[in-house]
Amino acid sequence: MKPDILLLEPMMPAIEAALDSAYRVHRWTGGTPSEGGAIRGIVTGGGTGVPRTLMDALPSLEMIAINGIGTDAVDLVEAQRRHIAVTVTRDVLTDDVADLAMALILASMRDLLPGDRLVRDGLWGKQALPLARKVSGARLGIVGMGQVGQAIGRRAQAFAMPVSYYSRRDLDLPFTPFVSDLVRLAEQSDVLVVAASGGAQSRHLVSREVIDAVGPEGLLVNVARGSVVDEAALVQALQEGRLGRAALDVFTDEPHVPEALWSMPNVVLQPHRASATIETRQAMGQLVLDNVAAHFAGKPLLTPVIL
Ligand code: 8YV
Fold first, then answer.
1. What DSSP string runs through 73-137?
2. Which atom of ligand 1 is nearest to the CA of 225?
3. pLDDT per position as a tens digit, 77-102
4. What is the location of CATH 3.40.50.720 in the chain?
5. Is 254 a catalytic residue?
6. Ligand 1 pocket, Cβ-based, cut-off 6 angstroms
């Protein structure tokens, strides 16, 4: 008999078709599914994770395959206690997230969206745009220097951006200095990019003080998790002109984006799309399929989360 799987968010049609052919796939509609007792596997996204109430309602759950790298929305301690295996799609989305971070830096500092809007509104030649800011040579601070942070650093080097970073510890990287104080890093950066994992340990790491240190001429970019930034402080700093610009792919309470941000011309907004390319979602989906298949075949998982 095919194992029962609960799919928490949509995936590419080809990936869903492959799941459908190998498993009895139940699509989550919120709450506790009536077939809860039969569910042995969950496939979910990094942002969605698994609500704890749902996890508690699935007594036969053996594995959670996250279609992403973030584990902050899954209770890993509880998973370990219940011997539920958890996998992520390590490595395959690093480039895309770093690419989007660069795209957000470029879009924000070069005023891409106001320029685009001016052309579409037929105002070229009628209305002047303020001059933008130069990206090449701007000083970049990276918060969280895992694979994504390092990939952003490598890209920034091609833009002649001096790169420094803040991390839980000095990683002794050859190309970029470690700064042990996040406020100091923010002070000495023109652009601060958040690439740290979410979770209790990083909640509101980018505080009002850090945002103020980025300052009225600075740009804050977040491609990590909304929870890492104090969003209320961010909105207030933008409203009061204490922060120059923000470019955000992630938010505290997705898909809710604070309405105050919607009309700000110095803010670039994306709907959590850093890994949303055909190529990467295909590779992520394949890794999910391979991990789920390995689990039900009793073989070693390809990319397990190890606590
Ligand atoms: C995805 C993510 O958008 O990797 C993560 O943790 O949040 C993103 O890559 C998400 O997992 C797909 O829902």
1. TS-HHHHHHTT-EEE--TTTTHHHHHHHHHHHHHHHHTTHHHHHHHHHTT-TTTSPPPP----TT
2. 7
3. 999 999 999 999 999 999 999 999 99
4. 4-92+278-296, 94-269
5. yes
6. 9, 45-47, 67-70, 93, 272, 274-275
